[in-house]
Amino acid sequence: KKGALQDKNVRKALAHVVNVPQIIEVVNYGYAQEIASFVHPSKKHYNKKLKPYAFDLEKAVELLDSAGFNQVDEDGIRYREQDGEIQKLSFTIKFNSGNDKRENISMFMKENAKKIGINIEPVAREWTVYLDECTNHDFDMFVLGWVQEAIIDDPKQLFHTEAYNGGSNYTGFGDAYSDKLIED
Prior knowledge:
3-stranded antiparallel β-sheet
């Protein structure tokens, strides 16, 4: 909801920077599965037609170029000029300190993003500070996990707009249409 991240193509480009196969192999020792939903694939309502964003730096560059981030500064960081202001592709990615998996994911993001002119700085936070910052939407990006139950999923806590302030919808996902789908 702030800066360059308001641009959908920038967010899509960042999705293509995440090397999920690398994360599965190196961080999770091969014990993980890539999915394209918050629904676990063992559940009957998992949509098998959804495809995750592929790790694809060329596609990420195309998306950034289409968003106008086609100039590079002296530090190799992409930027665009919009409404008389320079917007640089420079972000932080937060994770809770002491969590090696999340730190490694953040470092992979930093290294992959650097290859295409995006600066990402990993920032470790003590757990309670980290959760406060997520709850207060004080982040560019963050790494967090969510555990699912064997029961039917209720996405309201994570994805309903009512959960933006005081709930777990840290990213501000949703609109009236998605709220109605959740409620139905």
